[in-house]
Amino acid sequence: MGTTATKIHNKRARIPWRFLGKRALFYTFTLWAALTINFFLPRMMKGDAVSAYLARNQNISQEAADALRALLGLDTDKTLWQQYMDYWALLLRGDLGISISHGLRPVIEVISGALPWTIGLVGVATVIAFTVGTLGGAFIGWRRGSRLDLFIPLTTFLSTIPYFWLGLLAITVFSVNLRLLPIGKAFGVGLSPTWSWDFISSVIEHGVLPASTIVLASLGGWMLGMRNMMLTVLDEDYITVAQAKGMPNRRVLWRYAARNAVLPQIQSFALSLGFIVGGTIVMEMVFSYPGVGKMLLDATNAKDYALMQGVFLIITLSVLVANIAADVAYAFLDPRTRQTES
């Protein structure tokens, strides 16, 4: 009996190498396709960064313009294929090029200056919304038919409001009328990024309003999804058996029902974590927040190819890494997944 139990345990604990190998091949191809599209898509747009720069600075000589095009990888003497190969050579060396809209600074330096603001704000807001929505949805699903069901249409209604309108409404109420919170920006005027309490408290104060609107706008989706999954799980036989054995309701709720109902939420949460890097463009525009989303919009308007490609690269990698993490976690939490795909 001990030998049989050991075999069963080893079989359950076996690492799903075949499943992970298939996913690795899939994501490798996806990465190549995304980076290839990342190269060609900006070049399909009308105009380029150099032309826009020359329109603003007409005293630039033709020789300087040609040198600038060569520096940005837009040399007309090279074919599109040669530019594509140069693009991959630079990527493999970790060189994302230079940004013409930021004073010819390295793209990696420009992105690294905006990335912490987006991750800090959108990341914290996403985690809060997921945690509150998932726990709340599980409890509401468990207490189905009670007055707690009123939270579902309320939070869903908030999710249907256009984000820019919700942000402007929050600014009007809490910043203009009540004067409780600052209108926008990431920190107060006159402060510089340091590890001082004045700067940190200013960052927190400026982040409360945009973070709260993100939570309110996304809370309904998490709560509704978890509540619906709980209603499905509660009809399963193992829940009925657990309750018939006299297990405490709290244990049945969190150990059996919520643990299985949360599995589909993991994939959605991973996607949300991946898209955190892209930021929320509308939010950053409404609150004048110096994040990656606003930077991407500005780079698109300036036709800054290098910066656009750098931001797209970071977003692509973050989404792929988040999906890989979700697939691995899902495979270990739910053995049916790897058994189906193996």
From TrEMBL:
Predominant place of localization: membrane
Family matches, as InterPro entries: MetI-like (IPR000515), MetI-like_sf (IPR035906)
Transmembrane segments: 24-41, 114-142, 163-183, 203-224, 269-290, 310-333
Keyword Ribonucleoprotein: no
One of the GO BP terms on file: transmembrane transport
Membership in a protein family: Belongs to the binding-protein-dependent transport system permease family.
Domain called ABC transmembrane type-1: residue spans: 115-326
Name of this chain's protein: ABC transporter permease
One Pfam family cited in the UniProt record for this chain: BPD_transp_1
A GO cellular component annotation in the UniProt record: plasma membrane
PANTHER family listed in its UniProt record: OLIGOPEPTIDE TRANSPORT SYSTEM PERMEASE PROTEIN (PTHR43376:SF1)
Keyword list, A-Z: Membrane, Transmembrane, Transmembrane helix, Transport
